[in-house]
Design goal:
Elements lengths: L24 H13 L16 H11 L11 E5 L2 E4 L4 E4 L2 H4 L8 H13 L10 H14 L3 E5 L2 H18 L6 E4 L8 H5 L4 H4 L9 E4 L4 H7 L6 E4 L2 E2 L5 E2 L2 H14 L2 E5 L23 E4 L10 E5 L20 H14 L3 H22 L4 E7 L2 E6 L4 H9 L2 E2 L1 E3 L3 E4 L7 H27 L3
Parallel strand pairs: 3-15, 5-6, 5-7, 7-10, 10-11
Antiparallel strand pairs: 1-2, 2-3, 4-12, 8-9, 11-12, 13-14, 14-17, 16-17
């Protein structure tokens, strides 16, 4: 039986994940509110009023932080399970999970206990020493995935940089000095290596020059891939399910061509599973359903359970490419994050994969029904498992903002796509709350479209 994280914490009742059919969104919301909203925040601090306001924090931030983020206008006070509370006491259903980081929700018992226990032993000693938390997590990852070794990092971007360095070193040893091929819509971070393989102008304008021998190809275009690949190609890097690019899946024919070209030319394949990994799609990795095995996998976000942790999984034929000292990191694989990673793997094995498949199918069905109700607004339903998207006929930011007003936090990406990345422990009742809000917002947008269409210009 799968439980929400809050059900494990001291002093609370256990609320098992319900298995119910959604017939009435309003009815389920009425059921969900007393069960979920009134039991989510139970720590002793939850009754303590904040000493500040959202407006005050925004003003203070503007005085001291460089303005590089487009913030959601919420100042967070606390979070637990699938819910976030702001400093004014307003509660929101979190449908983005820290952009995929909080896969097990906020405040998961296993993670808190793991990092508390490790903090009581030691926090940091550097990678000059052997450390059991690093070894334990690497053993578990290798056992689960079948890869031969792990290289730790602090983030998905760092993991991607390490993967690029590794394939370049491999190419040097094997006389391959050609291109690394990546794809439009891909997102691998904001470091120079990552940006060199991405095409979005916002991330790159005025910040070149970038790395040479990098080429960005159209995603899901097997002919473009075949035209670009040759015997000098070092590697191909991709997301099998793009997140920032708008929740776009790799087509089977595209991956089949990729496999054939790898066999023909002998290049390496890097899979970026930073957002789609750790059970997000119902499998541990998104690539698993294609019958294709990458040479290198990068992962981060969910595996750290909220702490900075990235990892590069390396196939056996790449062992020995690096010599000791050719790569390293001060904090990569820090013991606190590794303890959290072990707790994440333990929790995932408590029925989470089955729950993701069940809830993913339910949410997909309900989103398709929403799409059929608002055909002028919703062009398509995308995604797999609990990595979902609605492609809209207008800028998705208006729908995102409308959801926020109704207590649901979602994300707009690729301009017209509403991205939904709920915690993997989301319940049917919680989804009903989100669905009711979504339907209300889309109804308002449809009305606005109708009025605009009949108003003389």
């Amino acid at each position: 039986m799968l439980h929400a994280p809050s059900s494990h914490l001291p002093g609370t009742r256990t609320h098992p994940t319900p298995t119910v059919a959604i017939n009435s969104s309003r009815q389920l919301r009425q059921k969900a509110v007393p069960v979920v909203l009134h039991t989510v925040f139970h720590h002793s601090t939850s009754s303590m009023p904040s000493q500040t306001t959202t407006a005050e924090l925004i003003e203070r931030e503007q005085r001291v932080l460089y303005p590089i983020y487009r913030r959601i206008p919420i100042a967070i006070a606390r979070a637990e399970g699938c819910w976030i509370e702001d400093v004014e006491g307003r509660r929101y259903l979190d449908m983005i999970s820290g952009i995929g980081v909080n896969a097990l929700g906020h405040g998961h018992r296993r993670i808190i206990e793991a990092i508390t226990g490790q903090a009581n032993r030691y926090l940091h000693v550097s990678n000059l020493f052997y450390q059991e938390p690093q070894i334990l997590l690497a053993e578990r990852l290798c056992q689960r995935t079948g890869y031969a070794a792990v290289v730790y990092a602090n983030s998905g971007a760092e993991a991607w940089e390490a993967a690029l360095k590794l394939v370049r070193r491999w190419g040097h040893l094997h006389g391959k000095h050609g291109k690394v091929l990546t794809f439009t819509g891909g997102f691998h971070g904001r470091t120079y290596g990552a940006l060199s393989g991405m095409e979005k102008p916002l991330y790159k304008d005025g910040m070149g020059p970038f790395l040479p021998q990098m080429q960005v190809l159209p995603y899901n275009d097997p002919d473009a891939l075949e035209a670009a690949a040759d015997a000098t190609t070092v590697a191909v890097g991709l997301e099998f399910l793009q997140g920032e690019g708008g929740i776009v899946e790799a087509q089977p024919a595209f991956i089949e061509r990729l496999a054939a070209l790898r066999k023909r030319y002998g290049f390496l394949v890097i899979a970026d599973e930073v957002q789609s990994g750790c059970g997000r799609t119902g499998d541990f990795f998104a690539f698993e359903r294609y019958g294709f095995r990458p040479d290198i996998v990068t992962m981060a976000k969910a595996i750290g359970g909220g702490l900075p942790l990235g990892a590069v999984l390396v196939a056996e034929h790449l062992l020995g490419v690096w010599q000791r000292g050719q790569h390293g990191t001060t904090f990569g694989g820090n013991p606190l994050a590794c303890a959290a990673g072990l707790a994440v793997l333990d929790a995932l094995d408590e029925g989470v994969f089955e729950h993701v498949r069940t809830m993913g199918a339910l949410i997909r069905h309900r989103l398709e029904r929403v799409a059929s109700t608002f055909p002028t607004l919703v062009r398509s339903v995308r995604g797999r498992g609990l990595m979902a998207g609605l492609e809209l006929s207008e800028d998705a930011s208006a729908v995102r903002d409308g959801l926020l007003e109704r207590g649901v936090i979602a994300n707009a990406t690729a301009t017209t796509v509403l991205r939904l990345l709920p915690p993997l422990i989301i319940t049917a009742e919680e989804w009903a709350f989100a669905e009711e809000a979504l339907s209300a917002v889309l109804a308002e947008r449809a009305m606005a479209q109708a009025v605009a269409a009949t108003t003389p210009s």
